[in-house]
Amino acid sequence: SGNWRSTNGGDAMEVAIDPTNDDIIYTTYINGKLYRSYDRWFTDTYYCISDNIPGGTPNGSWIAPYMIDPSDPNVIVAGYDDVWRSTDRGATWSALSTNIAGGSTLECLAVAPSDPYTIYCSAGSTMYKTTDLGANWSTVVVPGTVGITSITVHPTNPNQLWITRGGYTLIYKVQTSVNGGSSWTSLLGGLPNVPVNTCEFEIGSDNLIYIGTDAGIFYRDTLTNAWTSYSTGLPKTSVTDLKIYYPTRKLRAAT
Fold it and tell me: What's the start-to-end Cα distance of the chain, in Å?
């Protein structure tokens, strides 16, 4: 109704909104403190659901990754020094891994939209994968040593994915795999040598992806062999997040 309300304060990090009920909103604070409101913070009532994890909120990255499972809005998956999963919107949690990153904290996380048993996560330049909801994890070998900044999984194929990289190694900006990470292809051509921060796949397209970089937005599909700038009218600024709003076909960028 035109009014703004604050959620949790301080260095708030990531927001997720239940796709089936927009009264249910999640936000995070530093190092993975995860909050949930059932009324859009209308009464400013919220719950630190990460404290429901056995032992309290685990050790997490400054911006700890989490997401609502694309196939079930009741399920939340979060990455700390291990991967945790809740099937009741954060009331209770179960661990999906044990010391997965050897004491490091996870920075990226993706649940395959078409297969909730397949989860990818990463710490630094190292990626991990499970295809059986955490019963077994494997380390995915990805060429390059620059930190992974995002993981995007194809909406209908859990073995097809894209990762973006930070840093200034030109050959490793965006990489894709069609076999669950067994082999990788670098998507080269047309990108400036700046960090790439995020990737968004256009559902229903011929592998059309958009990326946000420190120098604006670029896109690429299977019909082109190079990246094309998509930044007309956009200031030359770091783009940190992208989302497509499908009812009006709007690409929204956060800077």
Answer: 25
